[in-house]
Amino acid sequence: MTRSVNVAIIGSGVVGSAFITQLANLQTKNLAFNTIYLARSSKEALYNTDYKPVDLFTYKQEPAKPVLGLDELTTFLVGAHRPTILIDNTSNETIANHYPQFIKAGISIATPNKKAFSSALQTWNDIFSAAEQDGAGLVYHESTVGAGLPIIGPLKDLVLTGDRVETIEGIFSGTLSYIFNQFSTPEASKVAFSDIVTTAKSLGYTEPDPRDDLNGLDVARKVTILARISGFEVESPTSFPVESLIPKELESVASADEFLQKLPEFDAQIQQLKDDAFNNGQVLRFVGKVDLKNNKVSVEIGKYPFDHPFASLKGSDNVVAIKSHRYPNPLIIQGAGAGAEVTAHGVLADAIKIAERIAN
Amino acid sequence: MTRSVNVAIIGSGVVGSAFITQLANLQTKNLAFNTIYLARSSKEALYNTDYKPVDLFTYKQEPAKPVLGLDELTTFLVGAHRPTILIDNTSNETIANHYPQFIKAGISIATPNKKAFSSALQTWNDIFSAAEQDGAGLVYHESTVGAGLPIIGPLKDLVLTGDRVETIEGIFSGTLSYIFNQFSTPEASKVAFSDIVTTAKSLGYTEPDPRDDLNGLDVARKVTILARISGFEVESPTSFPVESLIPKELESVASADEFLQKLPEFDAQIQQLKDDAFNNGQVLRFVGKVDLKNNKVSVEIGKYPFDHPFASLKGSDNVVAIKSHRYPNPLIIQGAGAGAEVTAHGVLADAIKIAERIAN
Where do the coiled-coil regions begin and end (chains A, B) (predicted)? Predict the structure, then answer.
């Protein structure tokens, strides 16, 4: 007997379209996914008032309707009287803030959107207390940290089965992983920090304005999520020390281009830091840390010996090391932590887990 | 509304008793586990014909009944007319061979017992085809490889969401990890292989007869499981090359003591291998490999450069590196791969996942 769920997808950008392709090609035994709503942009959506499924192979060409507002969308989805998963493949904060309403209406959520989980603590509490009510939807968000790497699920498993997390330490930005892996190596190297940032931008590894990576806020959001899962109620991603890699003098220059032009003037300082570390047999890495013993969270430049797992990181890989009562030698998970395919498969794996629980 | 499942536990050895303690202390919202059967040895079990739950805090002291045979047990569990999870915390092959019957009867299984998944391919097929039938039980076995490390689940997620696994390579024996991490290091060392084996035995890291670790069969079983999940239908754990660390001349000596006495006579050969590797900037590690491109599986002594993640492994940690279409830089998972607490929490996390799907 095949069980089925309804699916509503918001977003068909880089991650969104990878997700749609993976879902279209999904082969699950005894489990069917009917996409009854697909917002392919912030303005256009595909759906049928009789809930006839959208064709995931032709969604780009089909004639579209205006997107439904979030309340309208809730009413539309609930009206199908079927178990429903909302896939939010955006980084939109308004949608994120609506999660508690979706969940209370019985709609489950699978998403890589960090906003809902890493903003004010109140939003986090609203989401997870809503999810505990009878008839509420489920919430899975593996891809909010490290893309498809198995981090959120295994960490929740540890906590739920009674382990005591002591520290979490990791490299959570693909962009900053790439920059520091290039800049600071166990082999002597003289390449300038600003040159690597410029190269990273030209390779498409950074945000359009690299300062959006260098300010450390994306890392702070991920660390906030991991801390909260571990039981440390971080108030917000700006409520703890976050080291910015943007020189103070360049915070307010008008454009990304001007920023990159002036960045070389500040190379000497970080070069000194790197040389000092190198002379001590260490590399620099941009890390997020959660210290549950001392109730401390931080985002900073850390120093690691040449034989540390963080020192041998390749490309733009992410890595997380979880020390706990059961894992005094840390549990380490490492691999691509950004990219459309791996982010999408994390979301799809979550959607399958939800479907296994709610499909009928 | 609290949903509940019935639980039947077989085994209260090292892993089994850790599991029982974790389950007894489990705090899950809206989810209750009723242990209606607990076999505390191969002879004694606790259960009540009216299905009144067994007390997990006092199970060692309670008066026991003789264990139920596997058919009787099935009848007893099915008679409760409730969703039921069987926890097999043994390494018993007879119980493993009965899994298809349990599953067909609607009983789900969570287990660290490798036997069912790593023996004849027919048993594997029987289990997973039974699990696809209407009303069948579910099967989760995270702790069969790497104890509680998240390996089986994430690998199944990759395959299910359409990734193509290319190679899996790893260190899957805590005992052999310890022995090789001590023996072959990026720093020069002259300690003899036989001395490390003797120390490992005295620390309780080996089986009573260390040859049961050194023959590589435990690693072969784990590699068989990973290969099958990845879509490579390995016939049995003895159907591919497995390098044994037992010198041929010592395979048939009568006792473990005699084996350890004579092992030093064979130190020179493996010492030479280690010295050659060291002079090439490499360490030796005992690894299992699955090569999906060339349909090859093997267990062997591998050589890895000093800066490879396998070279910096600590203690008795396990590690697995999964290369796939989506992870050309491998996905690496590393940490304690043996031990009662981490094995038990892997089983408990599986039991929770099953309960989330079947409880009512």
Answer: none
Tell me how far apart the alpha carbons of residues A320 and B333 are, in angstroms, rounded to a whole number.
10
Distance from CA of B57 to the nearest CA of A (A): 16
Of A132, A331, A342, the CB nearest to B335: A331
How far apart are alpha carbons A255 and A201 in whole angstroms? Answer: 14
Question: Among residues 37-56 of chain B, which lie with CB inside 8 Å of chain A?
Answer: none
**Which domain covers residue B55, as residue numbers?**
3-147+341-358
- Report the alpha-carbon distance of residue B1 to residue B31 in Å, rounded: 9
Q: Are residues B197 and B293 in the same domain?
A: yes
Length of chain B: 360
Token pair 């705090």: residue: B27
B66 min Cα distance to partner chain A (Å): 30
For B346, which residue in chain A has the nearest alpha carbon? Answer: A157
Do both B171 and B252 map to the same domain? yes
- So what's the ipTM on this one? 0.96
Residue A18 and residue B161 in contact, taking contact as beta carbons nearer than 8 Å: no
Note whether B105 and B212 are same-domain residues.
no
Active-site position among A114, A115, A201, A222: A222
pLDDT tens-digit map of A43-92: 999 999 999 999 999 999 999 999 999 999 999 999 999 999 999 999 99
Pair A168, A307 in one domain: yes
Look up the CATH number of the domain holding residue A166: 3.30.360.10
Tell me whether residue A14 is exposed, middle or buried, using C-beta atoms within 10 angstroms of its C-beta: 0 to 12, 13 to 18, 19 or more: middle
Q: How many A/B residue pairs have CB atoms within 8 Å?
A: 123
pLDDT tens-digit map of A6-48: 999 999 999 999 999 999 999 998 999 999 999 999 999 999 9
B100 and B201 both lie in a single domain: no
Instruction: Clarify whether residues A221 and A234 are in a common domain.
Output: yes
CB A131 within 8 A of CB A138: yes
Is B57 found in the same domain as B205? no
CB proximity under 8 Å: A 313-342 to B: 314-315, 317, 326-327, 329-336, 339, 341-342
pTM: predicted TM-score of the whole model, two decimal places: 0.97
Indicate if B163 and B303 belong to the same structural domain: yes
pLDDT at residue number A1: 82
The total of structural domains in chain B comes to 2
